[in-house]
Structures are given as structure tokens and as C-alpha cells.
Amino acid sequence: MKKQRILFIGAGRMAEAVAAGLVTSSADSIEAVVMSNNGDIERLQRVETTYGVQTTQNWRQEVDNSDVIILAMPPEAHPSVLKELSTHLNQQFVVTLAAGIGPSYLESHLPQDTPVAWIMPNTAAMIGQSMSLYTLGTSATKEHKEVLQMILKGIGEAHECSEKEVHELTAVTGSAPAFLYYFAESLIDATTAYGVDEKTAKDLVIQMMYGSVQMLHETKDPASLREQVTTPGGATAEGLKVMKEQDFSLIIKQAIEATNRKAMGGS
């Protein structure tokens, strides 16, 4: 694989995370990383200083010299950018990080046979621990997949899916961290209700969750870990009984379904 010149259209938090991963894990495979942002000069200066990337306020001038173009902007910004980008493309590999913008959408808005891909990371990309989903378009080759895997390597683990699966599973890998954080908030609130100060409550809950996730990562068996903590007829069992009576599992499923409906344009 030849060294890649990678252009980011957008320089927000996710773009920054992906760029940081690239310059850290794949420097030998990169000719240059160029980042652009719509008018936020201060942010561009910061990412340039922090990561040693190049920056520009006019991405259009960089397209011809780029091998990969990463669209790191909100879904609603894609139609206008894709329309303009189409007039500059010459078989560059176009990758989007936006929710709901799959390869079929990109292919329908770009010149015929443009190689495209869709990456759905989550916010843990910022610490190199994302569980990303990805899928490639019909014109992407083995070499394009290698480039994509190089990009993904810097932000954590990744799983290849069909476009349909990315749409369906983004709620689990992308949105569910918010559900986990809400669970943490609820535990902290329950702790402070016993008169514990908020800082102590946060320390207790966050370390408990961190240790539990570490064990889960090692064993890959949540049911077994739950059973280890739960003595039949004991206090933990009584708490789980309440969760089962309130159908906690159903609530999670409904939250996932609602997230997917919204992501696919529903209400």
C-alpha cells in the first residue's frame, strides 16, 4: 500500500480522534493528514499544533492531491458537500463518519464507480477504545479495505458489517454508551440520597463500573459474572428481582428500537 494523503472535511471531535489515531499508529503509512473546518481557525490551529497535521480553510484545493477524503461532518451537511465534492473527484476513496449515511447514499450522490465506505465509531475513539462498525461500497477494492483498516486501527477495535447491519447496530455501539452513562448518573443519584457527597458518590460508582467492565472484558460472559455476585435469596438477588419486575431488559430493547427508528428518519 502506497503512502496515503488523507483529507478531512470537518475537524470536530470525532475527526480529531481519527486523525490522532492515524498519526500515532500509522505514521509510516501516511504521506500527510490535512484537516479543514468551516471557519473555526482557532480549532484548526490547535489540531495542527497538537498532532502535527496540515490544515486548510479550503478543502476544495486539496481534493486533487488526496487519496482518501474523510467526511467528518453532521448528516445534514452531506448533501451540499457531496454535490460540490462530486465536481472535484477523480476516483479518490470517500469515507463518511456520519450516522445514517451509508455507502448506497454516497454512491447515489457521487460519480459512478467512486469507492466509498462508512465508519460508525463511538466516542471512545477519543481514547483509542472505540468499537467501530464499518462497511464498504460496491466499487471499493481490497486495497481500499486495507486503507480503511489502517484508519480504524488508531481508534480501537472494528467489525465489518453489511450496510443494513450498520444501520441496525449503531444504536448498540454508538448510542448505548449514553445509556450506560445514564445508568451511572442514576447510581450516583441513588448514592447521594444516603447523604454521601457527590464527589465521593462519583468515585464509588465510576470505579465500581470500571472494575466491572475490566472483568467483563476479560471473561466475555456477563451472565456468569452476574451469577458470581448474586447469592440466591440474598440482597443482590432482591435488587435484581426489582429490575426483572420492572422489565429492565425490555426497557433496553425499547431504547434501542427507538434509537434505530430515529436514526433511520422516523419519529
UniProtKB/TrEMBL annotation:
Annotated metabolic or biological route of this protein: Amino-acid biosynthesis; L-proline biosynthesis; L-proline from L-glutamate 5-semialdehyde: step 1/1
GO biological process, one term: L-proline biosynthetic process
Functional description taken from the UniProt entry: Catalyzes the reduction of 1-pyrroline-5-carboxylate (PCA) to L-proline.
Listed HAMAP family: P5C_reductase (MF_01925)
Protein name: Pyrroline-5-carboxylate reductase
Keyword Lyase appears in the UniProt entry: no
Reaction catalysis annotation: L-proline + NAD(+) = (S)-1-pyrroline-5-carboxylate + NADH + 2 H(+); L-proline + NADP(+) = (S)-1-pyrroline-5-carboxylate + NADPH + 2 H(+)
